[in-house]
Write a structure and sequence with these properties.
- The complex is a heterodimer of chains A (about 290) and B (about 160).
- Chain A is α+β, with helices and mostly antiparallel strands.
- Chain A folds into three domains: about 45 residues, 2-Layer Sandwich (Uridine Diphospho-n-acetylenolpyruvylglucosamine Reductase, domain 2), CATH 3.30.43.10; about 110 residues, Uridine Diphospho-n-acetylenolpyruvylglucosamine Reductase, domain 3; about 110 residues, Enolase-like, domain 1.
- Chain A contains twelve helices and 14 strands.
- Chain A is globular.
- Chain B folds into two domains: about 80 residues, Beta-grasp domain (Ubiquitin-like (UB roll)), CATH 3.10.20.30; about 70 residues, DNA polymerase, domain 1 (Orthogonal Bundle).
- In chain B, strands 2-1-5-3-4 form a five-stranded mixed beta sheet, with helices on both faces.
- The chains are: A alpha+beta (about 290), B alpha+beta (about 160).
- The interface between A and B is medium-sized, with 32 and 34 residues.
């Protein structure tokens, strides 16, 4: 038996789930797909007193277009997003991002809400939420609130959610017209955690020049991070290789010192940020044209 | 001492009821409680794929799923796939294409491939490789396994293989 002992509850409503979190404040962990939490339990790095399983709470599993927003329930499996015809046809950036999440066998069980709330800095969905400016809906003892992606990711494995709050839905805005996107990362093997990755969107104006750009780097710091100086360099400029080269270099320079570990040095990660930044902006601009 | 839980699961079309500690992983339950030792335990953190089973028709890692999470669901393990003398076409293809040597990883591969071929009877090489990417084999080499998937897909499409 690998995991330490813990209690288990499978509430039927969000109200019951919130009450359980309040009752065991600080000692409870929410269980969604378990693709990060159960390994942590098996390694005994996490030792919660109780797991509160959200599997039987109704209303958390959906992929729904709502005006200019794609609303995804927190308990929606990543694989369901990947295989959704609506996502594939109308939200190709989301589809592309899911394909980088671990392996199909993990995506079959892993959830969108679980990945966002786990907030691994090398994970794809937090980076996607940040580049698209997604909003997170959460329910807690005081009712419901909405948290923007820029405020949601606080630091390593830490979000703005209070201990008794539950993420119930993520709302991803649809890309505006004349906007292209890119999802790119480098990992030792496909499906491994990214050593570094970049997600970008570029919007062109009616003369074919860059109007706005968003550039998010992940796997390089405590959270996914935007590169605002690099983004601003594109405004009003003609989309061309030299511009993307300069913007990639700027992105790599403006981030804090990247993580250095057994998988890659800080220096290597910074260089990946430069190269991937350049490639992502070029790809996004090409898709926008 | 945390309370144990009563669960009901259907495994390989057999209903089972059991009382489990919440911390029991599904693979330990399948092997230790039900005696279904065909599912293997490898890395125990969801990376190697040896423990892959079908959970409500989808291939998942049973080492990072708790038995209590399986309550009310339907599971298929390698024991439900075929048996000696009546191999499933995927197993037959592994035999013919030399898709295994030591066999430790094989049950997980078979279950992942089963899901792939259910969803996609004539998969592209990219689909095959994406599926196999979630399974680690340390002795055969993957080319023979890719060949086995292609062969199994053809057998299943034509109804050959002497199964069912």
């Amino acid at each position: 038996m690998k995991p330490p002992r813990f209690d288990y509850a499978d509430p039927r409503t969000l109200g019951e789930a919130v009450a359980l979190l309040q009752q065991h404040e600080g000692e409870a962990k929410l269980l969604s797909g378990g693709q990060s939490l159960v390994p942590l339990l098996n390694m005994r790095l996490a030792r919660p007193a109780i797991l509160v399983d959200l599997a039987k709470v109704a209303g958390l599993d959906h992929v729904r277009e709502d005006g200019a927003t794609l609303a995804i329930g927190a308990m929606t499996r990543q694989r369901s997003v990947e295989l959704s015809p609506v996502v594939k046809a109308r939200h190709p950036m989301l589809h592309a991002a899911t394909l980088h999440i671990a392996h199909p066998q993990n995506r079959n069980q892993g959830t969108v809400g679980g990945s966002l709330a786990h907030a691994d800095p090398a994970a794809e969905l937090p980076a996607l939420a940040l580049v698209l400016g997604a909003e997170m809906r959460a329910v807690g003892p005081g009712g419901e609130r909405t948290i923007g992606a820029a405020e949601f990711f606080v630091t390593y494995l830490t979000t703005a959610l209070e201990p008794s709050e539950i993420l119930i839905e993520a709302r991803f805005p649809t890309l505006p017209p004349r906007t292209g996107w890119s999802v790119t990362e480098v990992a030792r093997r496909h499906g491994d955690f990214a050593l570094a990755g970049v997600m970008a969107t570029v919007t062109l104006d009616d003369r074919g020049r860059c109007a706005t750009a968003r550039l998010v780097l992940f796997g390089v710091g405590a959270t996914p991070v935007r590169a605002p100086r690099a983004e601003q360099m594109l405004a009003g400029e003609r989309p061309e290789a030299a511009l993307f080269e300069r913007a990639g270099r700027t992105a790599a320079e403006e981030i804090d010192e990247p993580l250095s570990d057994v998988h890659a040095s800080a220096e290597y990660r910074r260089d990946l940020a430069r190269v991937l930044g350049r490639r992502a902006l070029a790809e996004a601009a090409a898709r926008a044209a | 001492m945390p309370a144990s839980r009563h669960i009901t699961v259907t495994v390989n079309e057999q209903p089972y009821e059991a009382v489990v500690e919440p911390r029991t992983t599904l693979v330990d339950f399948l092997r230790g409680e039900l005696g279904l030792t065909g599912t293997h335990v490898g890395c125990e953190h969801g990376v190697c794929g040896a423990c892959t089973i079908l959970w409500n028709g989808r291939a998942v890692r049973s080492c990072i799923m708790l038995a209590v999470q399986a309550d009310g669901g339907t599971i298929m393990t390698v024991e439900g796939l075929g048996r000696e003398g009546a191999l499933h076409p995927i197993q037959q293809a592994f035999l013919e294409e030399h898709g295994l040597q030591c066999g430790f990883c094989t049950p997980g591969f078979l279950m992942s491939i089963y899901e792939l071929l259910e969803r996609s009877p004539d998969p592209s090489d990219e689909e095959i490789r994406d599926t196999l990417g979630g399974q680690i084999c340390r002795c055969t080499g993957y080319q023979a396994i890719v060949a086995a998937v292609r062969s199994a897909a053809a057998k299943l499409r034509t109804g050959a293989g002497g199964y069912g």
